[in-house]
Amino acid sequence: MKKIDDIYNGGRFKIERVEVDLPGGVTLERVVVKPGGAVAMLPIEGDSCYLIKQYRYPIDEYIYEAPAGTMNEGETPDETAYRELIEETGYRSDRLVPIGFIYTTPGYTNERIWLYEAHSLTPSNEFHKDEDELIEVVKVKKEEVFEMIRDGRIVDAKTICLVLKSLLSEEAVKAYVNSPGNE
To answer: What is the pTM of this model?
Structure first.
């Protein structure tokens, strides 16, 4: 991929026109959005987890999401996860467990979101919410999170991916252990 020019450069967010040599020898001109890195965390406490209900102005709605945020320049994903968890929930985690990453929409962006489970939660006011964040912290039973995905209360893609990577294996193990012949 070879950059042709910058369409927009707003600090953390860039849009570039690029020339791409595809396998098979075809060369195309495309637009790539480069928003920088981000993290999302699923704070877990016993049989519950914490989500946030946040106002998102591009869709003019409050939606349920995992706490998340963008990486500041020079920050590692671990440092961002630590900071953003406190900013958005008021809890710090003494055990952030990385569980991989996702590409949000690789058809036009290189955005990568690192995913974490957050355990050993304690209240903290080390960092404060950004002024544009309208957030309510909501404690939800783990099994209800799946129902919230099924019935459409959770529609945020990063949250669905994080819940599946974090809790699905736990639910699958429970289902197997409790199935006939495996008690």
So the answer is: 0.87
